[in-house]
From TrEMBL:
InterPro entries: FAD/NAD-bd_sf, GDP_dissociation_inhibitor, RabGDI. GO terms for biological process: protein transport; small GTPase-mediated signal transduction; vesicle-mediated transport. This is Guanosine nucleotide diphosphate dissociation inhibitor. One of its GO terms (molecular function) is Rab GDP-dissociation inhibitor activity. GO terms for cellular component: cytoplasm. Belongs to the Rab GDI family.
Length: 443
């Protein structure tokens, strides 16, 4: 291992594997190292046996749950927006050829104690039980405005400057009720709290447009989300394969790795026992950089194995349900994510549901009660609290480029924002995400 590299990447979480793949495509010489003996790091997908090792001290799973090898349980469950940044990265790098995708059956929102399908366009808004007749007309006008809006075409702006107008003011322009604002802001624009209301409207309008464009990206979609067969653990492995194709070197099961610094505190490589590898930059997840990160919050996640779909979701094999903060009396939203044997992540006739949120109290497990209440009867439930860490610096001074932890959201937009920001800081340029079309999306 005593070699010189352009970059050393520590950890095989999804973010690190994407960076490794992108740098390898850029003709950089990359060494990728992980202390674990499997790909995925914090974002791995586990078999049933691995799940019990992690949460039950290695106790044997109940035979009624089926074969361990049939399970691929995501530790950081998230869906992909069909026209979102992760899909565009997959297309840009051609990693899609290593993956199969299945459309997610539905996107839902909790309002006044009931689960409703999310209306994402004018025709769905007219049919939605979320709104009364007159509110539907106002919402339809709002959606038409958003769908037609083009930042570079003033004719679509209708005299409104969205870079200055707040989102609250834009809602007022269309006289939308608080309940309608709630599901638009949280279930379409995917904001995690209500801070966006006092900010300029443009970013939120573009987020709603993304939802709409994702919904109609591929024929036959009932939601804007996609999900890979065999779980999200397929994603880091696919990017690792991409890196290897372009000459990247991988070393798993290396528990003793530590970062080396020069006398000025700049990272110059890594040490692994007697072996040393040098590099111009070191990239990795927060666990490899003690003292260079801070805890900015905690996420609590419950993993439930069930023998039925989530009630009130039209017997869907895969859904997202967003519980906006106001609906549960919280500061942050709660998210329910569900997939099933139809996605090759569980045994026949088994569903896996996840409930996650940002921790607000000293009793995180109790905070999940509103989400868990939506699931119905469960066969098994596992609960975990994870720190969310962020780097103290941007990496330009010490050449340590550290990813942020994974938040509670069940979509990848914030994840890929972090990856693209890291790529820009490492290379000094933006990643070109000129999209191609994949052929392997199943409705």
């Amino acid at each position: 291992m005593n070699e010189e590299y352009d970059a050393i990447v520590l950890g095989t979480g999804l973010k690190e594997c994407i960076i490794s793949g992108l740098l390898s495509v850029d003709k950089k010489k990359v060494l990728h190292v992980d202390r674990n003996n499997y790909y995925g790091g914090e974002s791995a997908s586990l078999s049933l046996t691995q799940l019990y090792e992690r949460f039950r001290g290695g106790a044997a799973p109940a035979a009624s749950l089926g074969a361990s090898r049939d399970y691929n349980v995501d530790m950081v469950p998230k869906f992909m927006m069909a026209n979102g940044k992760l899909v565009r990265v997959l297309l840009h790098t051609d990693v899609v050829k290593y993956l199969e995708f299945k459309a997610v059956d539905g996107s839902y929102v909790l309002q006044k104690g009931k689960v409703h399908k999310v209306p994402a366009n004018d025709s769905e808004a007219l049919r939605s039980p979320l709104m009364g007749l007159f509110e539907k007309r106002r919402a339809r006008n709002f959606f038409l405005y958003v769908q037609d809006y083009e930042p570079s075409d003033p004719r679509t702006h209708k005299g409104l400057d969205l870079s200055r107008l707040t989102m609250t003011d834009l809602y007022r322009q269309y006289d939308l009720s608080e309940d309608t604002q709630d599901f638009i802001g949280h279930a379409l624009a995917l904001h995690r709290d209500d801070g966006y209301l006092s900010q300029p409207a443009l970013p939120t309008v573009l987020k709603i447009k993304l939802y709409h464009e994702s919904l109609f990206r591929y024929e036959g979609l009932n939601s804007p989300y996609l999900y890979p067969r065999y779980g999200l653990g397929e994603l880091p492995q696919a990017f690792a394969r991409l890196s290897a194709v372009y000459g990247g070197t991988y070393m798993l099961n290396q528990p003793g790795v530590e970062v080396l610094y020069d006398e000025k505190g700049v990272a110059v490589g890594i040490k692994n026992g007697a072996d040393v590898a040098r590099a111009k930059v070191v990239v990795g997840d927060p666990s490899y950089f003690p003292g260079k990160v801070r805890v900015v919050g905690k996420v609590v996640r419950a993993i439930a194995i069930m023998s039925h779909p989530i009630p009130n979701t039209d017997n869907a094999h895969s859904v997202q349900i967003i519980l906006p903060q106001k609906q549960t009396g919280r500061k942050y939203d709660m998210y329910v994510f569900c997939c099933s044997y139809a996605h090759n992540v569980a045994s026949k006739d088994k569903w896996i549901a996840f409930v996650s949120t940002t921790v607000e109290t000293s009793n995180p497990e109790a905070e999940l009660a509103p989400g868990l209440a939506l699931l119905g009867k469960t066969d098994e439930v596992f609960v975990e609290v994870r720190d969310v860490c962020e780097p103290l610096a941007d990496g330009t001074s010490d050449q340590c480029y550290i990813s942020k932890g994974y938040d509670a959201t069940t979509h990848f937009e914030t994840t890929v924002d972090d990856v693209l920001d890291m790529y820009r800081r490492i290379t000094g340029r933006e990643l070109d995400l000129t999209a191609k079309e994949p052929a392997n999306v199943e409705a």
